[in-house]
Design a protein that fits this description.
By secondary structure, the chain is an alpha/beta fold. It has a single domain, classed as Vaccinia Virus protein VP39 (Rossmann fold, 3-Layer(aba) Sandwich). Helix content is 26%, strand content 31%. It contains five helices and nine strands. The strands form two sheets. The chain has a seven-stranded mixed beta sheet with strand order 5-4-3-6-7-9-8, with helices on both faces. Helix 1 packs parallel to helix 2. The longest helix is centred in the N-terminal third of the chain and has 13 residues.
Length: 199
């Protein structure tokens, strides 16, 4: 079985188009086999995105980690006029994201390959992620804990994890070094925010 965090060059392409509306903005995204939530936009990603957009309406420099086909990052770039970088380890996901970016003229967004932060050499005001739970807790913690090396002072990490996928245990680990806020929850999905300050 092929997973969305692997690069399966033999996987047949089957492009789909998914739609999403935020307030008066209408979006369409190409999706394909071998990427996360290929048949429909994931509810956890929608909840994370919409919670973020309610919390922060300013234009900022944003990094979307594990971007899939670019849903979260592209909407943030369009709605908030933010400069957004999007990364994924999956080459097909990055290719789709770059195709999807081209649908929205004038947005300041790009997508490129990176395993967690290996190809990141700058800092951001916001890092946002729906982390790849199926790849294991170690990788999830690498993404979440590693975010603070790539956030500006006072910047924020936003992320979503389902309660039945270890949300509270991961929260407890992160609380060893950071103050973790639970800012929304619905249908078993927990949305967390952490400010990049030492406690």
């Amino acid at each position: 079985m092929s997973h969305y965090f692997e690069n399966d060059l033999n996987l047949k392409s089957e492009i789909k188009e998914l739609s999403y509306t935020y307030n008066s903005s209408f979006f369409r995204f190409y999706s394909d086999n071998g990427v996360f939530s290929k048949k429909a936009i994931d509810y956890g990603s929608k909840l994370l995105l919409e919670t973020y957009l309610e919390c922060d309406k300013e234009s900022k420099k944003v990094l979307d980690v594990g971007c899939g086909y670019g849903f979260i990052g592209i909407v943030i770039s369009v709605v908030n006029k933010s400069k957004v970088d999007m990364i994924d380890v999956n080459k097909r996901a990055v290719h789709l994201t770059n195709r999807n970016i081209k649908k929205y003229k004038g947005i300041d967004a790009r997508a490129f390959i990176s395993d967690a932060y290996e190809n990141i050499d700058t800092k951001y005001d916001v890092i946002i992620t729906n982390p790849p739970i199926r790849v294991g807790k170690d990788k999830v913690l690498e993404i979440l804990e590693g975010a603070f090396d790539h956030l500006n002072d006072g910047g924020y990490l936003y992320f979503v994890i389902r309660k039945d996928q270890g949300a509270l245990s991961i929260k407890k680990i992160l609380e060893n070094t950071k103050k973790v806020e639970l800012i929304n929850k619905d249908k078993g999905y927990f949305i967390f925010r952490i400010k990049n300050i030492k406690i």
